[in-house]
Amino acid sequence: MILTGKTVRSGQENSPVDEGVDPGIVAVKAALTPENEAARINQYRKGELTVVVVSSDGKPLKDAVVHIKQTRHAFLFGCNFFGLNPDDHSPAQIAYQTEFAALFNYATLPFYWGAFEQQQGSPDYDRLQAMASWCVAHNITPKGHPLVWHEVWPSWAPSDPDQAIPLLKARVLDLIPRYSSTIRYWDVVNEASNAMSYLPANGESSWIKRDGPATVVGDALDWARSAAKIDPKEPEAFIYNDYETGQPNVALLTALQQNGKLPDIIGIQSHMHAGVWPLTKVWEVCNTFAQFHRPIHFTETTVLSGPSRSLDFNGPPATDWNTDPVDEASQAQYVVQFYTALFSHPDVHAITWWDFSDLNAWLGAPAGLVRKDMTPKPAYTMLMNLIHKTWWTDTTGVSNTKGELKARVFYGDYVITVTDSSGQSRETVVRYPESAPPLTVTVRL
Question: Which phi-psi region, left, alpha or beta, contains residue 100 (left: φ > 0; alpha: ψ -120 to 50)?
Answer without folding.
Answer: alpha
